[in-house]
């Protein structure tokens, strides 16, 4: 039986978070300083890998809480020799609020976040009333947040939250961005469940 080889510390793209209180100096994540974008909850990494390959002049920070998912993405990204991708393993909300520097990112990508479908669990959703100011702080001037979900009710909440945020304007999701489809997305699209898109530019 073959075993997957573990990557050494010199080979990994996962950036260690060594403090719960000291902010991460995101500029140190990359040897080449390019515009940076952030993906929250990168899941299986199928969007992450495609986007990083297509945009070598963009440095991408992808965050995922689950060890199995981020380890799998790490192996694939390292084999693909992606120099413009770094991974963080952590809970998204805490990192957003406490560990990332302001005015760091040109864009934030949030695709298919956990919808927490039961009403009593809605408070656990990532995108709530508290969210726009947090994202606004991280974005550079005219930075964009891109959203996707297959959950109609959660999508309405996203629209309501950002519609009430005076610091953002609604814009169209670029077609080339829509063409990058995740494996998960392809599966539910095949079942007739549409992807719902939204995008907002900070003022």
Question: How would you describe this structure in keywords?
Answer:
disordered N terminus; seven-stranded mixed sheet; globular; 31% helix; single chain; Rossmann fold; alpha/beta; 203 residues
Structure in words:
By secondary structure, the protein is of the alpha/beta class. The chain has a single domain (38-202), classed as Vaccinia Virus protein VP39 (Rossmann fold), CATH 3.40.50.150. Helix content is 31%, strand content 22%. It is built from seven helices and seven strands, in the order βαβαβαβαβαβααβ. The chain has helices spanning 46-54, 67-79, 92-99, 131-138, 152-163, 175-178, 183-190; strands spanning 36-40, 59-64, 85-89, 105-111, 139-149, 168-171, 196-202. It has a seven-stranded mixed beta sheet with strand order 3-2-1-4-5-7-6, with helices on both faces. The protein is globular and about 40 Å long. The N and C termini lie far apart (56 Å). Residues 1-9 have low confidence and may be disordered.
């Amino acid at each position: 039986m073959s075993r997957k080889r573990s990557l050494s510390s010199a080979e990994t793209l996962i950036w260690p978070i060594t403090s719960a209180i000291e902010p991460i100096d995101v500029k140190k994540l990359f040897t080449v300083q390019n515009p940076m974008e952030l993906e929250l909850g990168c899941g299986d990494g199928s969007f992450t890998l495609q986007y990083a390959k297509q945009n070598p002049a963009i440095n991408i920070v992808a965050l995922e809480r689950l060890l199995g998912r981020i380890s799998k993405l790490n192996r694939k990204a390292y084999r693909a020799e992606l120099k413009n991708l770094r991974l963080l393993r952590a809970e998204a909300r805490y990192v957003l609020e406490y560990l990332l520097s302001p005015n760091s990112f040109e864009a934030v990508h949030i695709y298919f976040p956990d919808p927490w479908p039961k009403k009593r669990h809605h408070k656990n959703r990532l995108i709530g009333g508290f969210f726009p100011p947090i994202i606004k702080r991280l974005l550079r001037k005219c930075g964009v947040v891109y959203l996707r979900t297959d959950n109609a009710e959660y999508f309405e909440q996203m629209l309501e939250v950002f519609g009430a945020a005076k610091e953002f304007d609604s814009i169209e999701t670029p077609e080339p961005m829509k063409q990058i489809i995740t494996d998960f997305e392809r599966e539910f699209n095949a079942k007739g469940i549409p992807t719902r898109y939204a995008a907002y530019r900070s003022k």
